[in-house]
Amino acid sequence: QQQAATTAAAGASHDSTAAAAAAAAAEPAPVDPELLDALSAEANAWALASHLYWGVWAVIQARNSPIDFDYMQFSETRLGEFRRRKQEFLGEARRVFAAGDAAVGAAVIAADS
Q: Measured between alpha carbons, how far is 20 from 14 in angstroms, rounded to an integer?
């Protein structure tokens, strides 16, 4: 009786493994284009925040760090990228979130000021 239970458990394990393999081989589910746009706009808005953060951090490090590194050049690069992408990314966020979340829309408008 115990052998039959072990054999049945092994068969169930094999079946679930085969089902998982079949699911992995299946075509991926289609992605909603609106969701993809929203995720892209959100990621790009955070990229702007990252450029700004690291640009300011580098200015502070240029004044205070004992490490021999060209922090001002790093800051210029990050802040330059912030300025270069700001209109594009904020425009994308305005377009994507125009009818959506009011808090996100307000944050985009405030950042654009």
A: 10
